[in-house]
Amino acid sequence: MNAILLGILALPILAAAALWAVPVAIADRLAALYGSVVSGVVLIGSLLLWPRGAWASYTTLQDRPLRAVTDVPWIPSLDVRFHVAVDSISMPLIVLTALLVFLCCLYSVRITPRIGRTRSLIALLLVIEAGVIGTFSAMDLVLFFVCFEIVLIPMWLVIDIWGDDHDPAGRRRAATTFVLMTVLGSALMLLGFLLVHRKAGTFDIVQLTNSPVLGGHGVALAAAILIAVGMAVKVPLWPLHIWLPDAHAKAPTVGSVLLAGVLLKLGTYGLIRILVPVLPDATVTIAPYLAGFSTVAIIAGSLACLAQTDVKRLIAYSSVGHMGFIGLGIATLSPAGLRGALFANIAHGIITGLLFFLAGAIKDRHDTSDLREIGRALYARLPRIAALLTFASLASLGLPGLAGFWGEMLVLLGAYNPADALPRATYLVFMVLAGLGTVLTAAYFLRLVRNLCQGDPADHLPAAFAVDLSRIELATWAPLIALTVLLGVWPGLLLHQWGNL
Amino acid sequence: MTLTWTDWQAIAVPLVLAVGAVVVLLVDGFWKSGSRELRHAVVTLLTSAAILFGLVFVWAQRGGFKPAFCRPAVEGPAECSLVFEPLTAGLWAVLLIGGLGVVGLSAYRLLAADVPIGEYHFLLLSALVGATVLAGARDLATMVIGLEVVSLPSFAMVALRRDRRGSEGALKAFLVSVLSTAVMLFGISYLYGVTGSLYLSTIANRLPGIDPDLRRVAFAAGLFVIVGFAFKIAAVPFHAWLPDTYVGAPVEVTAFLAVVSKSAGVAGLLVLVTAGVAADGSELRTVVAVLAAVTMTVGNLAALRQQEAVRLLAWSSIGQVGFLLAPLAVGDAQAVVGYLAAYVVVTLGAFGSVAVVQRHRPAGLLTDYRGMVRSEPGLAAALIFFLVVLAGLPPGLAGLFTKFAAFQAVIDAHLGWLAIVMAVNVMIGLAVYLRWVAELFRLPADDPFSVDIESPAVAMISLCAATAAVLSVLPSTMFALAT
Amino acid sequence: MPLIVPLLLAVVLFCIGVYGVLARRNAITMLMSFELMLNAVNLNLVAFDAWRLDGLATGQTLAVFVITLAAAEIGLGLAIVLLLFRGHGHVDADSARDLVEVDAVQQEKGAAT
Amino acid sequence: MIATAWRVTGVGFSLLVVLTAGLLYGTDPAQTSFMNSPVGDLTIGFGVRTDDLTVLLLAVVGVIATCVQVYSLGYLHQRPASYHALVTLFTAAMVTVVIADSLFLLLIGWEVMGACSYLLIGHYWERRDARSGAVKAFLMTRLADVGFLFGIFVLGVGAGTFRISELDPAQISPGVLTTGTLLLLVGVVGKSAQVPLQTWLPDAMPGPSPVSALIHAATMVAAGVFLIARLYDVFSASDTIMTVLAIVASVTMLFSALCAMAAVEVKRVLAWSTVSQLAIMFSGLSLGTADGRHAALFHLVTHAAFKGLLFLCAGVLLHQVGSAAFVVLRRYTRRGRLRKALPVTFATMTVGLAALAGVPGFAGFFSKDTVVEAAWHHARDGSVVGWIVLVSVCVTVVLTAFYCMRLWLWVFFRSPALAGALGAFEDDDPMADLEEPDTSKLRDAPWIMLAPLVLLAVASIGLGYADGVQLNWVLALVTTVLALLGALPAYSLWSRGADPRPVVLEREFGVDTAYHGLFVVPVRWFARLAVGGDQDVIGAYVRAAGRAGTLASQGFRRLQTGNVQTYLTAAVVGVVALAVVAGVISS
């Protein structure tokens, strides 16, 4: 079992290196096919890691069965170990990552950014995949940090090189802001890890989970704040979200998909995996503030969406709101809230991935993502894509019966019933505000549909080149659509995994 | 009764290097019949042999403890002027590797044609002698001598091309250095006055017990000594000579300054701090910490807008020194030596790459590197790797873990404010290197750099890249150097 | 003679040296100022040695070393100054500004006009 | 091809619902749960149940949906595939609500209905009013649904279960019970368009008429009534909530009846009448007695029949004439064409209006009387709620009779006083100065549309007797007189050719404008504030950091003057500064 995990960690890196090392220029499509095959293998591997049945038995957070454990010393003098493993929290995220990277590669077989250089793009996507899976499977704080950082430079390159080709200065600025803010955040997070190490004497997450750093003030509190800030940049939580709209809006389609679908999850995963179990008391101290900022993120993100005129920016801001829900769920520290956060992680990855694919498709067809320039009445011009956009919007606004609902519902339930140590009245206020946030979410998605899909087709003649849903797009998006519905009607599929978390 | 005793093994390496220096000078001076190429090859081989001997010796003796020039002390254990111990071994290894790298960089067909070969290698070896002595020195007099023996040959090397730029660079470095020596010696004289000894261990023993009235004097003296080293390693605000000198010198000499000369300074400061002159919790450590914070911030910020590759590396090396000073301020030798090791290897590689480009594009602007991922993929990949290691991000795990060790040392010493400054500087530093990396990736380039790279350069850069890669995968080797 | 007298003298000497280094443009004068500073050090060392009487005559030994050092430094320094003179035709330390950064020069030009 | 498939699926599915209702009729109540997941000490999962209420609603939903699907075959030619698919989904969602035993399953159906109604109201997305009506419908119900969700939390956490069959009011503390049901009521109010969330329903009229029929008759708005009936034990356990419900219902029924009196479009009149009739059902429920619940459900069933009928009739008008606005219809009517050209529509619509107005003998009469009777019994027992309900229902009977009469007369009959004059409605419509329409081509709708009309017309009469006639003759007489009281003024006004519409009624009490000013405008303002805040505050800090870095970099380069003596001076100053700083930090 652990061979599979090591395999899916190493394979993308080796494959990327091999792709770069091939001296001859290979065709774009061949590179994309190669990437699809590699990421497909990784996807299969990650599915093989998925437990079959036996996981419902475990009971508490402290006693979570790890699978595929590899634990060897790496840098003894720094007390760093190479400790990877998966459990029910990380497994769905790993599969999500593998799936999205696979779909991105598949998508690139036919549709690539105008700038070309697909070979490097595919290689970078594979490196990102390895980094993200590594982060999700790391059981050592330092290894987590290293993997957390692996994705930075590739993602920076993806935005910087393949980004919006109309705005080179803008995409460069977006990429740099993204990478610099994230690096600052992760450096602060590292300080937090080191403080933990100073207190506990180990970087091992499993050990730290079993014997956490107690105490809600002093060093533990400082560590918790630093870790929370570092993760919050990645999540991103208001007011550290400022890099996100630009980065998403300027990134190429596959970049946006991975950024929103996978990279944002690193932050929330870190909060759940590290902050909550390792620093329980300090987390209780900062949780209300975390919840407060998350609520502000929900409201402010949704409000900002209402005033956006760019499709990709709008979807990017919607991520701020949705990640706010996840942050709120974590900050409740309750079973429902944590499960909601985990569920919303997956759901947001799927739905926002789909949304960014759609936005990319619309952008490719009109050579702009500005709502005013695209015009209205997509229902008439691109009926299938418009219908899918409506579907994805409904899913994203949390319509029950689709994947987006359960996460938000559980988060709100968690806020209604937060952990005993937390001030309940405050959380009730947060719950009500977050509830209003769902209405605002609905408002901006409906505004999007209204301004983009609906409208009098007579005013906007169909462009000559505008082809409706192509086969590769259908093939790429179908799994996301299917999962959106499947998780919507059968939330137990994931909830059950987490058992009595 | 013995007055002094010496374990000759402790000074074998400096001795061999010194002998090698003389031999190189003689060979070059009296063997006029050979062609320039042949002489260059022989000189390079001789120099390499001397340095390699040093490396092998250090490897063989790495665990031992060998004192030299010792005498019984009035109180406590014997006082020694030069000691070979694991820390020394680590520092020597770093210095010698750096020296070897510079020799490799100056191999045939790489060194600028107007630099005299014999003198160059003689000066290089002499400086190495000084550097090794400095790293092993345990009394202030030896330290001063060592420091001067590092410094004076390097100024000569800067001016070795005998042109306007070289002489100006040398003058600046020289003037600043002499001032620093004077300040340092002034400090040493007071330190001697206060404690009555020049032996570091004795000074460390006596400092806590001195007359409270003299405490301020002792502090000022220690400050002056540290400032002397700060000049040497170009810590802000004693850094201003560095960019000018780096630009004025031939690239190989710049590499030497950045690698050997700077490492020697750090080694001296490390010895000074760890040997107890700046004891744990003393104000002097705060001085070093302040220096670290200011140095990394100013260095990185100033590097942010540079247009020339060498100047960018110059400023960024100031920033790197800031990071080196951080664990030094808390006396964590392991982190310092580890950091130094990664820094030396990567800086060599970076300067090597720059040297290749600069030979064909003398302007040395960052824009000259545009589009290199396509026109020169191998060199570009190596350069990107070096820069990423300097920035401390994956895949440059060597840089990441050395920075990590620095953070750990600082955090464990409860210097929270310094850690925050370091975190901010990680960000600024990344911004510095990413500008360069972005140029490398930018396509399409009007006039991409593409040449047949000289084989010594290929070998050198590959070697550096391979070493950095090994250090990235097995970072423990770096930290094993000083234990 | 109290210890303070040579020490004060040394401080004065050192300060004169610093002043000379900072205020004089001629590189030769600067070198001479450095000599003054080093001599201040020597005076200190000898004075402290006489005060301490530690049996090894450490201070005096170091003073001898410093004198040697000074000689070496001046030797090298004069060589560099000579080279400077050959290249620039003068020995003004603050006029050798070939290596200045482009921005700084531009700014200075802007200020001049 | 796809359209045909969806047509067949739609009709087939609705017939299946009817069939299921038939099969389930008479079976014992049962419930089962599945796909449960533990979340802390709660269980999130699904459950279904069957009982009398389920069967009743299934039958209603099935019949109405069948009628609508069949009717739509003739009615709708634009984008039929998505239309039939969505109607089917809509029906399925209502079925989900009806059979749900888990509050979450119920919520899924509840909100999917909202989404479907949004998509169906916006079916003609080329039209501005359809777009905004759809958005409004979804947002208002969504806002209410947030309350509903919180209500589920309160009740579910309070009772420790989210299964409806396990909710036991006795085990829930009174405070939790009141809070929870109050929050649920918010959702119900939104879904059923009661005051103060009533404005979306009239604006939802631009959707296709069969959809309106479906929304108003059997799904969506009826879901609110169904929910309270389903959770009747829980709701009736709290007197507070019953009083609140009664007040809301009374205000709503009067409010919307008044609005209906001034509406000048057939579908809008019908929409307001729906709101009013739903309020009557709620008032029956608010009595808190078994009689009241029974009366409400009875009215729900009859209302489903005649309101479905009326909307389908309005659809025929739209389909054949092209508009359901009074002003357009009057153009035909004053030539006496409309009644003669559309005889079946006229006849069935007359039946529907009669049932709505409570003309004796029609279904609406009987069901309304059961509500009145239940209220009377309750009021006689000394209940304030009973009195409130009784009085407001009686007043509503008067108003209902008025607007039904008004509609009937103005649409189908020439005004004796001002024959041929557009008079009363002219100023409302920009189309008023159009040429006279060509009335000769006006025909009644195809049989496939008329068949459901006839079926529902029969139901609108026959359902009144389904429950057995148990009239309290005195009350029946009173309500008949009240209805007459309402109808007479309408007749007299019509005969004089006058249609006075008070401004306050025509503007529907200005609620829409107020909401716009109170909510929409501030939200837009806040949105701009949020964007501005991001750009000019948070973004400014980031930009300023970048700018500061650049400036500092520039500054350090300026300091690099190339003058070695500057360097030396800086160094000497640095030594002093360092000493000072170190002293400060250490001390």
Automatic annotation (TrEMBL), chain A:
GO cellular component: endomembrane system; membrane
Keyword terms of this UniProt record: Membrane, Transmembrane, Transmembrane helix
GO molecular function terms listed in the Swiss-Prot or TrEMBL record: NADH dehydrogenase (ubiquinone) activity; NADH dehydrogenase activity; ubiquinone binding
Domain NADH:quinone oxidoreductase/Mrp antiporter transmembrane: 138-417
Gene Ontology biological-process annotations: ATP synthesis coupled electron transport; electron transport coupled proton transport
TM ranges: 89-109, 121-137, 143-162, 174-194, 214-233, 254-274, 286-307, 314-336, 342-362, 382-406, 426-446, 474-493
Subcellular localization: Endomembrane system; Membrane
UniProt key word Calcium: no
Chief place of localization: membrane
UniProt membrane topology term: Multi-pass membrane protein
InterPro entries attached to this UniProt entry: NADH_Q_OxRdtase_chainM/4, NADH_UbQ_OxRdtase, ND/Mrp_TM
Keyword Membrane attached: yes
The family this protein is said to belong to: Belongs to the complex I subunit 4 family.
Protein name listed in UniProt: NADH-quinone oxidoreductase subunit M
Organism: Kribbella antiqua
UniProtKB/TrEMBL annotation, chain B:
Compartments it resides in: Cell membrane; Endomembrane system; Membrane
Membrane topology type: Multi-pass membrane protein
Matching InterPro entries: NADH-Q_OxRdtase_suN/2 (IPR010096), ND/Mrp_TM (IPR001750)
Keywords annotated in UniProt: Cell membrane, Membrane, NAD, Quinone, Translocase, Transmembrane, Transmembrane helix, Transport
Ranges that cross the membrane: 12-31, 38-59, 89-108, 120-137, 143-161, 173-192, 217-242, 254-278, 284-303, 310-330, 336-357, 378-402, 414-436, 457-482
GO biological process: ATP synthesis coupled electron transport
Main subcellular localisation: membrane
Enzyme Commission (EC) number: 7.1.1.-
A Gene Ontology term for the protein's cellular component: endomembrane system
Every NADH:quinone oxidoreductase/Mrp antiporter transmembrane domain range: 137-428
Single GO molecular function: quinone binding
Catalytic activity entry: a quinone + NADH + 5 H(+)(in) = a quinol + NAD(+) + 4 H(+)(out)
Entry similarity comment: Belongs to the complex I subunit 2 family.
Assembly mode: NDH-1 is composed of 14 different subunits. Subunits NuoA, H, J, K, L, M, N constitute the membrane sector of the complex.
Biological role stated in the UniProt entry: NDH-1 shuttles electrons from NADH, via FMN and iron-sulfur (Fe-S) centers, to quinones in the respiratory chain. The immediate electron acceptor for the enzyme in this species is believed to be a menaquinone. Couples the redox reaction to proton translocation (for every two electrons transferred, four hydrogen ions are translocated across the cytoplasmic membrane), and thus conserves the redox energy in a proton gradient.
Protein name listed in UniProt: NADH-quinone oxidoreductase subunit N
Organism (species): Kribbella antiqua
Gene from which this protein is expressed: nuoN
UniProtKB/TrEMBL annotation, chain C:
Membrane topology term: Multi-pass membrane protein
Principal subcellular localisation of the protein: membrane
Catalytic activity: a quinone + NADH + 5 H(+)(in) = a quinol + NAD(+) + 4 H(+)(out)
A GO-annotated cellular component: NADH dehydrogenase complex
Record-linked Gene3D superfamilies: 1.10.287.3510
Residue stretches spanning the membrane: 62-85
Keywords: Cell membrane, Membrane, NAD, Quinone, Translocase, Transmembrane, Transmembrane helix, Transport
Subunit structure, as described in the record: NDH-1 is composed of 14 different subunits. Subunits NuoA, H, J, K, L, M, N constitute the membrane sector of the complex.
Function: NDH-1 shuttles electrons from NADH, via FMN and iron-sulfur (Fe-S) centers, to quinones in the respiratory chain. The immediate electron acceptor for the enzyme in this species is believed to be a menaquinone. Couples the redox reaction to proton translocation (for every two electrons transferred, four hydrogen ions are translocated across the cytoplasmic membrane), and thus conserves the redox energy in a proton gradient.
HAMAP family named among the record's database cross-references: NDH1_NuoK
Identification of the protein by name: NADH-quinone oxidoreductase subunit K
TrEMBL record, chain D:
Residue ranges of every copy of the NADH-Ubiquinone oxidoreductase (complex I) chain 5 N-terminal domain listed in the record: 38-80
Gene3D superfamilies to which the protein is assigned, alphabetical: 1.20.5.2700
Compartments, record wording: Endomembrane system; Membrane
Keywords from the named record: Membrane, Transmembrane, Transmembrane helix
Transmembrane segments: 53-76, 83-100, 106-125, 146-165, 171-190, 211-229, 241-262, 269-288, 308-329, 341-364, 384-402, 407-425, 445-466, 473-494, 566-585
Pfam families in alphabetical order: Proton_antipo_M (PF00361), Proton_antipo_N (PF00662)
Domain NADH:quinone oxidoreductase/Mrp antiporter transmembrane: 100-380
Gene Ontology biological process terms from the UniProt entry: ATP synthesis coupled electron transport; electron transport coupled proton transport
UniProt topology in membrane: Multi-pass membrane protein
Gene Ontology MF, one: NADH dehydrogenase (ubiquinone) activity
GO cellular component: endomembrane system; membrane
UniProt main location, coarse: membrane
NCBIfam families registered for this protein in UniProt: NDH_I_L
Name of the protein in its database record: NADH-quinone oxidoreductase subunit L
Naturally occurring in which organism (per UniProt): Kribbella antiqua
